[in-house]
Structures are given as structure tokens and as C-alpha cells.
């Protein structure tokens, strides 16, 4: 017999591992932007599958035909890198970024709300500083001293513009992180503190 996710005898088991549990709800604090990030996340997940596929292709070409490629290593590194960079925004959109909960778990709902607001402000500020640093890096990676657009390349025989594209992508993600944490801050301020289930019993 399946155990209900609201069964009080199993309140310590996360809903995601309880049989027949409902899918985890998307956090309301992330707003419409969080939903949009969640919708496009599968594109970057498929990027890892594509990277694996072209690595297998490289093994086949190298060891069967003795004809290694010039582009596989750099392309798989690029695909993996943009996936990991996007992962930071995805974690923020899912409100699953790392927290130190030694104090968070022992305080009441009002203090938790205050901590949520403070954490969001700190994360937004940090993301803003990183975005500024990324912009300085992007200027060097995408513009020549004369102001012409020229993306930084790998400098290899393949010489793809992956470094410049990756740095520009990082800047965009950091700007979106600032916006996402701003949305978190606003929604946490508006949120009514809820007493934890264990405290009500």
C-alpha cells in the first residue's frame, strides 16, 4: 500500500522519495522568471547528452579510423561549461541554492522570513559584483582596442570563439541572477510567515 506524503508517521521523509508523492511544487517566490528558467532548463540538460555523444564519436574516429578530430574536446568543454553556468541560475530559480541552516532551522517563522530576505539581498549584491567583474572580462574578450567586435578564440588549430561566447553567456546569467534574487527579495517581503508543521503539533 502506498504511503501518503501527508501521513504524519512519515513526516520526516521528503515527498520526492515517498511512493506516489505529488511532484514537487515550483517555489512561488521565483515568480514568472523562475518558471521561464525552469522551462528552458531541459535545453542545457540536452547539451550534456550532446557532449557525451560527440565524445563517443571522437573515440570511434580516433580508435577505429585513426582520424582524431580537432573540434570535439573544445566543443564538449564548451557545452559542459554553459550547462554548469546555467545551473547556478536554475538552482536560484528553484530556490535550491546552498544555505547554512544551523540557525535557520531553529528559529521561528518570522525570523526565517527575515533571514530569507537577508539571504536574497546578499545573493543579489554578490551577483551584481560578479556581473560587473564579468562585464570587464567580456569587454576584453569580445572587443578589440579599436572597438571592433572580435570574440576571443581558443588559440588552437580549431580556434573556435568559445571563450568569448562563454564569458558573454556568464555575464547574461549573472545579470539574470541579480533579477531573480531581486524577485526573491520582493516576494519574501510580501510572504506571510507560516508556522512549521512540527511546531504546530
UniProtKB/TrEMBL annotation:
What membrane topology does the annotation report for this chain? Multi-pass membrane protein
Can you tell me where the transmembrane regions are?
Answer: 43-65, 71-93, 114-135, 164-183
Kindly indicate whether the keyword Hydrolase belongs to this entry: no
Q: Which domain of life is it from?
A: Bacteria
Looking at the keywords, is Membrane present? yes
What does this chain do?
Part of the tripartite ATP-independent periplasmic (TRAP) transport system.
**What's the family?**
Belongs to the TRAP transporter small permease family.
Q: Which GO terms describe its molecular function?
A: transmembrane transporter activity
List the record's Gene Ontology CC terms alphabetically: plasma membrane
Which residue intervals define the domain Tripartite ATP-independent periplasmic transporters DctQ component in the entry?
A: 52-187
Its name, as the record gives it, is TRAP transporter small permease protein
Where is the protein situated, by its record's location annotation? Cell inner membrane
Q: Which organism is it from?
A: Thalassospira lohafexi
How this chain assembles, per its entry, is: The complex comprises the extracytoplasmic solute receptor protein and the two transmembrane proteins.
Taxonomy, top ranks, is:
Bacteria, Pseudomonadati, Pseudomonadota, Alphaproteobacteria, Rhodospirillales
Query: Which keywords, in A-to-Z order, does the entry hold?
Result: Cell inner membrane, Cell membrane, Membrane, Transmembrane, Transmembrane helix, Transport
Identify one Pfam family in the record: DctQ
Amino acid at each position: 500500500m502506498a504511503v501518503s506524503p501527508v501521513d504524519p508517521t512519515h513526516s520526516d521523509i521528503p515527498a520526492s522519495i515517498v511512493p506516489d508523492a505529488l511532484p514537487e511544487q515550483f517555489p512561488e517566490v521565483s515568480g514568472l522568471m523562475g518558471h521561464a528558467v525552469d522551462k528552458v532548463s531541459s535545453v542545457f540538460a540536452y547539451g550534456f547528452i550532446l557532449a557525451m555523444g560527440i565524445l563517443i564519436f571522437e573515440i570511434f574516429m580516433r580508435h577505429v579510423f585513426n582520424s582524431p578530430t580537432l573540434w570535439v574536446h573544445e566543443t564538449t568543454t564548451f557545452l559542459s561549461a554553459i550547462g554548469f553556468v546555467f545551473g547556478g541560475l536554475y538552482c536560484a530559480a528553484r530556490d535550491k541554492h546552498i544555505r547554512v541552516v544551523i540557525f535557520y532551522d531553529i528559529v521561528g517563522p518570522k525570523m526565517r522570513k527575515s533571514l530569507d530576505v537577508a539571504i536574497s539581498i546578499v545573493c543579489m549584491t554578490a551577483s551584481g559584483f560578479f556581473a560587473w567583474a564579468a562585464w570587464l572580462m567580456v569587454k576584453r574578450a569580445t572587443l578589440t582596442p579599436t572597438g571592433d567586435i572580435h570574440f576571443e578564440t581558443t588559440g588552437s588549430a580549431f580556434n573556435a570563439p568559445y571563450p568569448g561566447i562563454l564569458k558573454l553567456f556568464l555575464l547574461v546569467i549573472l545579470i539574470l541572477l541579480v533579477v531573480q534574487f531581486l524577485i526573491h527579495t520582493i516576494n519574501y517581503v510580501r510572504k506571510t510567515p507560516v508556522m512549521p508543521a512540527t511546531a504546530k503539533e
